Amino acid sequence: MLYRAAAPPAKRPRHTPTGAGARPSRRARPPFWRNPLVVAAMVTVLVVVGVIVVVAVRGDTTSTGTGTQAAQSGTPASSAVMAAVSGPDAAVLAAVGNGGLPSTFTPVRDAAALTGRDGKPEILYIGADYCPYCAAQRWALAVALGRFGSFDRLEVSRSSSRDVFPDTATFTFRNARYSSPYLDFVAVETADRTGAPLQAPTAEQQALLAKYDAPPYVAAASAGGIPWLDVANHYVMVSSGFTPAVLSGLSWDGIAARLGNADDNVARGIIGDANNITAAICTVTGMQPAAVCSSAPIAPLVAALR
Amino acid sequence: MSAALRRERSALALLVFAVAGVGISAYLTTLHYADVAPVCTTGGIVDCTSVLQSSWSTVPGTSLPVAVPGLLWFAVSGTLALLSLRAAASGRAEPRGLRGLHAFWAVAGMVAVLCLVWAELVELRRICEWCTAVHLLVLASLLVTLVRLQPAGEVEAELDRDPAA
Prior knowledge:
By secondary structure, chain A is an alpha+beta fold. Chain A is about 30% helix and about 10% strand. Chain B contains seven helices and no strands.
């Protein structure tokens, strides 16, 4: 007896075209695409995927939990977020190292040092609120700068809803005030999260951007890109040091909470990038403060940078 | 291959899908824990590195990569297919409800896949080709399990009763 693949079907009148008693001809199983269950499943899957594609194209994230919150520019970062950014655990900083992220700084060897009004080395950041890579870079930059000074007003923001890695939780430097005995920090946010113009770079900043956000300092494909970071005309860097994907779907508090776990991708991205930025900054502050620049893992990162 | 096994080609297909899925899931799981970049496209809309490093690459509330439940899903699917094949090879009837259970398992897998597709297209705007391969394997498994829910052709049943068969 042949294996019966399923329960015997209900009896129907036997169709015997060649007469009674003739061996029944094998009637092939209908093609699978005529199977009503298959058709229903395919239609369902296609409809759902179609809806997802439409939502993605429209940038409509109104049902994605934390990703749905409107931009909250103008709202200061919570104390929990500020604490996590300005005072990360030293053990975590050391354990993460560069987080497996190679430094993407390019040395600038032919330029006069960029300094602020009182002669301190100037760190110049140019980005925009809508830009998801800026969103990622701001976290690392805030952690790095927090080791040399303090922010007075750091507001939360989100990247554009219509770009890649939409609605990435971040800060905006548009109203931030930063003070440090070691350096000056200047930030220019050129547009808000909708792309509307916000802050215009000065002529000097435009000139730096035109010269150092271009080959050979950055790859031709990245020329003119943001975020762009100039460490006192000693090192320049374009784009973020880690992918904004690690922040996707997370709130500010969620990101801040993950900074305490050295094994978490968020910590490895933000702190790894921050350590690389810290090392670059240490090269222009004369390795000051020593507690930062001579600590693990900054000292070896500085040595590698040089 | 025996006639019985030839008639269980659909179960064989399910087993092949499961083996492929286990392979890919194991690869992605290994990448996660070894902290190694995957072999795939980076940059642009197809960017598996970004997807696999994203917060959506782990089970919510844990640090467990979603590749692990994926691996388990394919392992269970393969086991169910093996049960069908073993019954066919020994000429015994399949355990009752096996096909229904496999179809239910496939539907559950497809629901999870659609959630992950949402994360890729809406939350990340990035597509991971390894993930897409896994998603297609789950879809193929679903379709095959649904085909297997359809009772065997009446004529086949008649052939069972036909001494000449």
